[in-house]
Structure formats: structure tokens, C-alpha cells
Write a structure and sequence with these properties.
mainly alpha; Protein Binding, DinI Protein, Chain A; 2 domains; two-stranded parallel sheet; 4% strand; elongated; disordered N terminus
Length: 205
């Protein structure tokens, strides 16, 4: 019985030594790694005020407006043919009337196909714009984090609760993850300034 008690005590002592050793090692590792330095960025604000994103969006909008003008022109042509068919000057069983009907059906199919192709193309281009800009923002954030020795960058909404204009915005503000932060934790303006400076350099060339 005494042997069993002695063995149990020895095991308990070894276990306690192991725990203490692990704790010390963990503290040493934490001391070497240093405290976490957190930064915050409002991605919505960056996209809104990044000059390159604005330029790319405006270019895409110009393409969309041009496409809409082409579609409008096709619709006007169809309306003119429709007026000829319904003017009463052509009989419905005449070759001219049937030819106009055939043209209208062909143009209608072409218009629908044109709009579908353009819509897919614009959605693809828009997604490419967002992807390109996001990758540039991510690269700028990485550079800023390494320069400022930040270990974690989180997205947040910098708008304050008191700035909310309606109940829905108030609820959204109250549900945001970041409840408190120091002004120096917000790196939005620094990253945005870097992005616009680099873009203006490239644009000036």
C-alpha cells in the first residue's frame, strides 16, 4: 500500500513539473513573439475613394451606355418595321408583309442574344475590376503591416452609430464586430493615400 502511495506521489510530482515546464516554455515563446498589434481598415471606404477603382468603373459604365445605345438603335429599327406592317398599306398575306414579319422575328432574336452576351460580358468585367482592386488593396495592406509591424488587420466600418440615418443603419452599427478602437488603429487613410499616390504616378506616365 505504501509503495502504491509513493508511486502515486511521484507521478503527481512529475506531472506538476511537466505543467510548470510547459507554462514557462509558453511564456518564453510569447515573450519572443511579442504582443499582437492590430490594425483596422474600412474596405468599403477604400473602394469608394480609390481613384483607380473610380476610373475603371467609369470606363465600364461608358461601355454599358454604348451597348444600350446599340440596343436602342436596334429597337428603333424594329419599331419602324412594325409601323410598316401595321400601317394598313400591306396585306397580311402579301410577300412584303411576310418579309417584314420574318425580319422582325430575326431582329428580335438578335436583340435578345445581344443583350444576354453583353450582360454576361459586363458582369465578367465588373468582377475582374473588383478582383484586381482587391488584390492591389491587399498588397498595400501587407506592405503597411510589415512596415508598421502589425500582426493582424481586420475589416471594420468606421461610420459611427450617431451618424446612422435610419433604424436599419443603427442596428447594423450596433451589430458590428469592432466596438472600440483607437484612432491610430485605423489604417484606412494611410492605405488609401498610398494607393492613390501609386495610381497617379502610373497615370501621369
Amino acid at each position: 500500500m505504501k509503495k502504491i502511495i509513493v508511486v502515486a506521489m511521484a507521478v503527481a510530482m512529475l506531472a506538476s513539473l511537466f505543467v510548470v515546464s510547459e507554462t514557462i516554455q509558453g511564456q518564453d515563446a510569447g515573450a519572443k513573439a511579442g504582443p499582437h498589434q492590430v490594425g483596422l481598415i474600412d474596405m468599403a471606404q477604400v473602394f469608394k475613394d480609390y481613384e483607380k477603382f473610380k476610373a475603371l468603373r467609369e470606363s465600364l459604365q461608358a461601355e454599358i451606355e454604348q451597348s444600350e445605345a446599340q440596343a436602342k438603335s436596334k429597337v428603333e429599327q424594329m419599331q419602324q418595321l412594325q409601323q410598316q406592317a401595321t400601317s394598313g398599306q400591306l396585306k397580311q398575306d402579301s410577300p412584303e408583309y411576310q418579309q417584314i414579319e420574318k425580319q422582325l422575328l430575326t431582329m428580335k432574336g438578335e436583340l435578345e442574344s445581344f443583350r444576354q452576351v453583353q450582360q454576361r460580358d459586363f458582369l465578367r468585367k465588373e468582377s475582374e475590376i473588383y478582383k484586381q482592386v482587391y488584390m492591389e488593396v491587399q498588397d498595400a495592406v501587407n506592405k503597411y503591416a510589415h512596415y508598421s509591424k502589425l500582426t493582424l488587420i481586420m475589416r471594420f466600418n468606421r461610420n459611427k452609430v450617431e451618424e446612422a440615418a435610419n433604424p436599419q443603419e443603427v442596428i447594423q452599427s450596433m451589430n458590428r464586430q469592432v466596438v472600440f478602437h483607437r484612432a491610430e488603429d485605423d489604417i484606412t487613410d494611410s492605405v488609401l493615400g498610398y494607393l492613390n499616390r501609386e495610381y497617379n504616378k502610373q497615370a501621369s506616365r
